[in-house]
Design goal:
Shape: elongated
CATH topology of the largest domain: Alpha-Beta Plaits
Structural class: alpha+beta
Number of helices: 9
Strand order of the largest sheet: 2-1-5-3-4
Distance between the termini: 38 Å
Number of strands: 17
CATH class of the largest domain: Alpha Beta
Bound molecules: iron/sulfur cluster, FE2/S2 (inorganic) cluster
Order of helices and strands: EEHEEEHHHEEHEEHEEEEHEEHEHE
Number of domains: 3
Oligomer: single chain
């Protein structure tokens, strides 16, 4: 077993592995520290400084997300000095943020505005940035540079998770923007439209082109049906319709990360051409049938073919879109009920 080190947070004795950060240790102990640029699974950048904490014996406040714990450390996460520093950081960030936050105006979440409400900051202290303009990059993704707080989460996820680097910090000083280089649009880069940058953006500066108002949608955790990986995602439902996909959970299969199909391929759910009941071909025409009718018909035809031509006249093809259990049952029907080993599916390799 790994040796733990001992420290103290807000007067409470706490232990942690030596390589842990202050943020991880505090969260493990149920002590909340606000963050904007931190994202589990991405390398720490300590960009926003909102997570600062006071370490006894050090003059400066330390970013909890990028500072390792050490034996005997004494920390304060909610002292006056810390709270005042956080307020100042939020006020400075708000001075570059539109007064009419585009994410909130669209009914989505903005972590910066949420923290500002929670910390009761003076939002007028340093004024606000310009309103900016929401630019539709493509069918999936839009950008409003004015809402960006340069946390670099989008660029880091694109580089460290996707391996694409379609987004980067372009420009210098107050002209810095998180966007594709060389004045390209996202479509002119190798962007895979995974939308992972959208998922991690804390302010909605990178947002969904199609769905808005997800903050008030009911979220249902489910498994993506597009392939056999089994990624977890949340379907956002409003008035009985799926209006978007989010991926806020930290499940072990995919964490927050999805591909373009899982994140944006949900419109088929309510498409008018979608098959919602079985069809049986009669006299060359596909006719609607009940499940009982279709299953009885299929069983009778399979047995008739087996009787006349033998079990190897029948083959079963299932799909990686089915669950493991469903694929197991298909091969069981093939081998045990029909007596053939002719069974295959696209995920066999
Ligand atoms: S959608 Fe995916 S690939 Fe495209 S910029 Fe965002 S993270 Fe990178
Ligand atoms: S667009 Fe969003 S994720 Fe990217 S740097 Fe700006 S605030 Fe951060
Ligand atoms: S969350 Fe630690 S510096 Fe941003």
């Amino acid at each position: 077993m790994k040796e733990l080190i001992n420290l103290e947070i807000n007067g409470r004795p706490v232990s942690a592995p030596p390589e842990a950060t202050i943020l991880d240790t505090a969260r493990e102990a149920g002590i909340e520290i606000p963050t904007l640029c931190h994202e589990p699974g991405l390398k720490a950048q300590a960009q926003c400084r909102l997570c600062v904490v006071q370490v006894e014996g050090r003059n400066r406040l330390e970013p909890a997300c990028a500072t390792q714990v050490s034996e005997g450390m004494v920390l304060y996460t909610d002292s006056h000095k810390v709270i005042n520093a956080r307020r100042m950081i939020l006020e400075l960030l708000l001075s570059e943020h539109p007064s009419n936050c585009p994410a909130r105006a669209a009914g989505d979440k903005c972590k910066l505005c949420d923290y500002s409400d929670r910390f009761g900051v003076d939002i007028t202290k340093f004024g606000h940035g310009g309103e900016g303009r929401t630019v539709r990059e493509n069918w999936f993704i839009s950008r409003n540079a004015a809402a960006c707080i340069l946390c670099a989460k989008c660029a880091r996820v694109c580089d460290q998770v996707q391996g694409i680097s379609a987004l980067a910090f372009i420009g210098r000083g107050n002209k810095t923007e998180a966007r594709p280089a060389l004045k390209k649009t996202l479509e002119q880069t190798d962007c895979e439209m995974c939308g992972n940058c959208v998922e991690v953006c804390p302010t909605g500066a990178i947002s969904r082109s199609q769905s808005a108002g997800l903050a008030s949608a009911r979220k249902t955790l489910t498994t993506c049906g597009f392939c056999g990986v089994g990624c977890q995602l949340e379907l956002n439902v409003k008035d009985g319709r799926v209006v978007g996909v989010t991926s806020e959970s930290d499940n072990p299969v995919n964490g927050k990360w999805l591909c373009v199909k899982g994140r944006f391929g949900y419109e088929f759910i309510h498409h008018q051409d979608r098959l919602t009941q079985p069809l049986i071909r009669r006299n060359g025409e596909m006719e609607p049938a009940s499940w009982d009718e279709a299953l009885t018909y299929t069983a009778a035809r399979l047995l008739a073919i087996k009787e006349k031509h033998g079990p190897d006249a029948i083959a079963f093809i299932s799909s990686s879109r089915c669950t493991n259990e469903e694929n197991y049952l298909i091969q069981k029907i093939a081998r045990a009920a029909i007596g053939t080993n002719s069974v295959d599916q696209c995920a066999r390799t």
